[in-house]
Structure formats: C-alpha cells, structure tokens
Write the structure tokens for this entry.
Amino acid sequence: MQSISLKELASRLDGKVQGYGDAVINSVATLENAVEGQLSFLANSKYRSLLDDTKATAVLLSEKSAEHYNGNALIVKDAYVAFALVSQWLDTTPQAAYNIHPSAQIDPSAMLGENVSVGANAVIGSKAIVGDNTEIGAGTVIGQDSIIGSNCRIWANVTIYHDVHLGQNCIIHSGAVIGSDGFGYANDAGKWIKIPQTGGVRIGDSVEIGASTSIDRGAIEHTIIEDGVILDNQIQVAHNVVIGAHTAIAGNSTIAGSCTIGKYCIIGGNSAVAGHLSIADGVHVSGGTNVTSVVREKGIVSSATVAMPNKLWRRNTVRFRQLDDLFNRVKVLEKASKATE
C-alpha cells in the first residue's frame, strides 16, 4: 500500500497544512466512512456537518471551510480537484496485463514498443503499432494497420478494428468497440444497399472511453475524437462524428452521424443528438435532452420533462396534443379582436 505525508501532499498540491504535517495518508474515503490513515474532502457546504464526526486522518478543505474544522486539514483552492489528484497518486488499480502472455497472438509484422504488456488470448493484427508502456488486456483485438499510442491502458475484451489511431495516455474500458461500420445504406426501391465504410477513427491524447461504448468508423472521412474527451459507458458515436477537445458525454447518450460537437461541452446522460447537427463550444446539454436543431451559442439546452404524478402527466399529455388546435383558436380570436377594434 502506498502512503504519503500530509506535508508532502501540500507540496504537490500547492496547499497549506493545518495541524500535524507528518500525518500519513494511505488512501481516500468519504467524510462519513473514512477511518484512520485516510484522507477525505469537503467540496459541498451542505455536507459540512459531517466534519464534526469524521474519523479521517485529514480533510481537504477550502479556506472558508477550514474555519469550521479544528482537525488535520490540507487547505487548497479546489478540494474536489485536489481529491482527484490524490486519488491518482494513491491508486491501487492493477495493470490491464503483465508482460506478454504465451497465448497472445501477435502478427509478425506488428510493431510493439518497449515495456508493452499483452494479456491472454489478445490478438494484434498485421502492421499494427503499439507504443511504449501500453497495456493490452486479455481477449482484446487490435486490427490491421491500427496505431495505439504510448502509456495507454486497454482493458479486457476491447475490439479495435482496422485503421484506428489512438493517441497517448488513453484508457479504453472493457467491451468498447472502436471502428465498427457506420450505419450507411442506400435504399433501392425498398432494398437496402450497404455503403462500405472506408474511413477510420482518429482519437487524440488522454481520452477515456467507457465500457460497451461504440464508436463507428467514418463512411469516407474519419470519425474524430479530440484530446481530453471523456465518454461514459454505453454511448453510441456514429460515423463521421467530430467531438471537440475536453468534452464529456454521460452514459446512454447517442450522437448520430456527421454531428460536430464543440470543445468543452457537457452532454448529460440519456441524451440524443440528431444527425448532421453542430453544437457550439461550451454548451451544456441537460440529461435526457433530444437535440434536434443546431446549437450556435454557449449555454444550457434542455428538453426533457420533469417527473410528475402519473395522473397529472396523462392530463398534460392530452393537453400537449391539443396545443396546435389551441394555437389556431387563439389566432382566430386575435384576428376577430383586431377587426372589432
């Protein structure tokens, strides 16, 4: 188990120690469940009452919150960001693979960098390239001509098709499929004619892709995921989508074909973006929203209705269907009113 003193953390985080700087931290926990040797944090003032009873060895706090706590603390600018960094330093997650397993199938033409690990029954196709210090989990497939950057962690049973380029420091979780065919067909008198998807997928540095997420290859041009993007579990990214740098998309969301999502966007869970649309930089899409038109300016967009008692929802649904008729009746009344005047 790794451990680090409070004063060493203060040095790394550019923070200030309150209390005993030699206190040793070996893991992180919530205020409510922390025990001796653990570091916790307070990022939301509504949980301030938990400070009184926490058993944490030390707590990450802002200047304002530190006024309410007499125990060991590390005073930082942003307690939640500091908590994330400390969590990384004390992370005990095992590697996706160790060394190269005898059952791994690696094509003779593939090129592996230094210190690459490949798990049991993994397959690396012809002319594929894997960068230094990258881990390929058991059962994962890397297709022909694909390039995997250095310091990546690809967990078990990931499928990366041919002509997929992955940057450095990326994490791909189990069950993800990258480079599968996009949904491209032409209709000939009711018969569907498949359009070969000959583009690839280009993924930048420091991207994380959640479990069972699918990213389709481009139809002709590439599907592009820029640096720092984070995708949650079970997301569908269709062909020729472009997702701008540092955008975050929560689970069960669907991005239809040829959409362009800006940089630094946040898309809430269970949202859907219709095809061939663009969303500006810095847009926040509320969870459950259906985006059906271009979003040109930074801000928050929402469409989902809130939960309500079933009887009320049924009445409102009926009234919603009557809106067009009501609108037309109001127009007639307005016209009649103007004529009377």
Q: What stands out?
A: The mean pLDDT is 95. The chain has three domains: 4-89, 105-301, 310-340. Residues 323-340 form the longest helix (18 residues). The helical segments are 6-13, 63-66, 79-89, 310-321, 323-340.
